[in-house]
Each structure stands twice: as C-alpha cells, then as structure tokens.
Amino acid sequence: MTKSELIELIARKQTQFSQKDVELAVNQIVDSMIDTLSQGSRIEIRGFGSFSLHHRKARVGRNPKTGETVELTDKRVPHFKPGKALRERVNDSKDNTDILA
Amino acid sequence: MTVDAAEGYTLTKAHIAQQLSDTFGFNKRESKELVEQFYDEISDVLVSGEQIKLSGFGNFELRDKASRPGRNPRTGEDVPISARRVVTFKPGQKLRAQIDSFDGDN
C-alpha cells in the first residue's frame, strides 16, 4: 500500500477531516519523523515501535564490480524496532494470511 | 514544538499531535485521534499481510522466518526458535540522504 492509498483509507474511516486535511496531516507526520531522525533524535510510538539511528564505523570497502578498494566513512543509518503489540499481532497473523507482494 | 534540542529528545504521538494542531489549526483532540489512526492503520495493513510504502520515508516489509536452532545465552541450553513473521523497515532515499547531510554537524 502506498502513502496515497493510506491517505484515502484513513480519510474513509473517519468523519472529522477532509481527505485534503488527512493528506496535509500525513505528510506533516512523515516530515516530522524525517526531521527528528535527521537531527539525531529518536521516535517512540507506543504499541507501534521506535526509530533510532545505528552507527556504522568507517571501514574499507570494495567495489563489487571492479574489485577496487574504497574508503567508507562513518555513517548513521535509521533503524526500526517494532513494538510489542505490533510484533505480536503480525506474528499471530502468520497462519491466517499470506504476505502480499 | 521544536526538535532543536536533539540531545535526549524523543518524538512521541503527543508531540506530533501538537504539531498538527499548531501547523494547521486542527482541534487538539482530533489531531490526537488522527495521529493514533495513522499508526493504527499502518499496523492493521501489516497484520493483513500487506506491506506499506511511505515515499520519502521508507517501506515497512513483512518477512516469514523459518524456525532455527537457538540457545539461551544465560544457561547455554539449546532452545528452538519458532517460525515467525516479522516487520522490517527499509529506509527510503530521502530519509537516508537527510540523515547523511546532517552528519558532521552533530
């Protein structure tokens, strides 16, 4: 499901906001999460999960095509840890549903 | 609410709801419900077996893992790890680029 499909779904399931307002809100939520992580802060959504940054040390890598060695600098990568409720519900759904492509 | 104080700051649903109400003038209670609904719908879609693509942010994907032999790290005892379905997050291009561009200033 894409972001615009998610926006339609949310808009359909409630009566307080127009689809336009839901779209504004969803884009703001996503931007806020991007800004927070970009500034090195965490996100904690109870039941859903948390986002944080993991640090990758600088290392010498290799270009897989040419075999050439390349210096890779330190970097930070975003990491998501599903919350207990989401983890359990998704795992429990395993026997009743297939994963859609 | 700002995220200037990166040190020790954690974004929560309450902060996001406050931002929605500050930015768009939405009613506070309704903003809170909308934020709840956003994460609830994503959860429900994942539970239904469908993956989520939030362009700019990243994809929430599902993976079925086969059972495998495990071990209790404390007792050293062999404990089988059962087959399970897990959610994984693949950060998108924009998110990775913004995190990279902030490197060094932090």
TrEMBL record, chain A:
Q: Where are the residues of the annotated region Disordered?
A: 82-101
- Protein origin, superkingdom: Bacteria
Q: Does the keyword Transport apply?
A: no
Q: Where is the composition biased (Basic and acidic residues)?
A: 85-101
> NADP: present as a keyword of the record?
no
Q: Which InterPro entries match?
A: Hist_DNA-bd, Histone-like_DNA-bd_CS, IHF-like_DNA-bd_dom_sf, IHF_beta
**GO annotation (BP), single:** DNA recombination
Any one cellular-component term (Gene Ontology): cytosol
Its keywords, alphabetically, are: DNA recombination, DNA-binding, Transcription, Transcription regulation, Translation regulation
Molecular-function GO term, any one? DNA binding
What family does this chain come from, according to its entry? Belongs to the bacterial histone-like protein family.
Q: How does it assemble?
A: Heterodimer of an alpha and a beta chain.
Briefly state the protein's biological role.
This protein is one of the two subunits of integration host factor, a specific DNA-binding protein that functions in genetic recombination as well as in transcriptional and translational control.
Output this protein's name. Integration host factor subunit beta
What gene is it encoded by? ihfB
